């Protein structure tokens, strides 16, 4: 019989940096599991990408108000969860994001314009999943958990040492696909890592009305999945825990479930009124746990970061935002027949028939709208 204690998460979320940026000693179990402060170079890169990602997120939010995006789910406040796990991935790994993980995709090196194509309404996915090893952003809750497990199992069968990272929200842990994905990964010992970004609300439903579990991390134990919980606003701890999870999965240890305790600072989307279900005092309380400020304070006090570098990265972030604004303000050219592309490798007879019908309608409409010659 396997050792159950090896599956259990730390009793308290792993933390390496306090909210004020001071280093703290992890608990006894966290220390035994090898969670140590990452090297300064890695933390500097996490900090830089969080600054860039925060500015991208703010610009995307503004684009919804300008009518350039139909909707945008902000991940402000979840910056550490959006950046640190992505930077720890290897080239051969796969990423399975949700609709809220646009910052993670930008961190992953995907063109911000391609990331926002879905939310603009041009394409369901603006990037090539095969080239980027990134699945399309998933809108239905938890379906990507099954996809990640299957992909991870497939990677193993092909002899690859790649893993699959599945990003998921707390609300999705109540869906059947989440449990099916965990169970499949456990049974087949698939190298999948599930990161639950517990931002305390499933739209307007608080965590207390979703589960009675002491922590969402314990949900993995029932499936024989090694589990952990981490302070999701502590970038150093998130990086350390995710590195260990990847190593465990990559070395044949099977899947890992990590719960990151964090907070969604903005509303669910621009169509949501968060004041109806949470208080300003609650939001203000989490403002003091900002992951960017926390890590920046630590890096400055340790002598790894100075004001010149801070201004340089801020300028880089502004350039990114300006470039995104310019390109998003240009009207997109839509090809109606492209609707039928990338549906099946070999189009079905019905799809061919529908495409031909649309082609005829476009041709007839164009003929009808042609200007007539002026009569003498």
- Alpha-carbon Rg, integer: 23 Å
How many helices? The count is 14
β-strand number: 7
Could you state the order of secondary-structure elements as H and E? HHHEHHHHHEHEEEEHEHHHH
Characterize the main sheet. Answer: 5 strands, parallel
Class per helix and strand makeup = alpha/beta
Description:
The protein has helices at residues 28-32, 40-65, 79-87, 102-107, 112-115, 117-120, 129-132, 143-157, 176-187, 235-250, 280-287, 291-301, 307-328, 349-368; strands at 94-96, 164-169, 192-198, 201-202, 205-206, 226-231, 256-261. The model has no long low-confidence stretch (mean pLDDT 94). The protein is α/β, with parallel strands linked by helices. The strands form 2 sheets. Strands 1-2-3-7-6 form a 5-stranded parallel beta sheet, with helices on both faces. The protein has a two-stranded antiparallel ribbon with strand order 4-5.
Brief digest:
The chain has helices at 28-32, 40-65, 79-87, 102-107, 112-115, 117-120, 129-132, 143-157, 176-187, 235-250, 280-287, 291-301, 307-328, 349-368, and strands at 94-96, 164-169, 192-198, 201-202, 205-206, 226-231, 256-261.
List the helices and strands and how they pair.
Blueprint: H1 28-32, H2 40-65, H3 79-87, E1 94-96, H4 102-107, H5 112-115, H6 117-120, H7 129-132, H8 143-157, E2 164-169, H9 176-187, E3 192-198, E4 201-202, E5 205-206, E6 226-231, H10 235-250, E7 256-261, H11 280-287, H12 291-301, H13 307-328, H14 349-368
Parallel strand pairs: 1-2, 2-3, 3-7, 6-7
Antiparallel strand pairs: 4-5
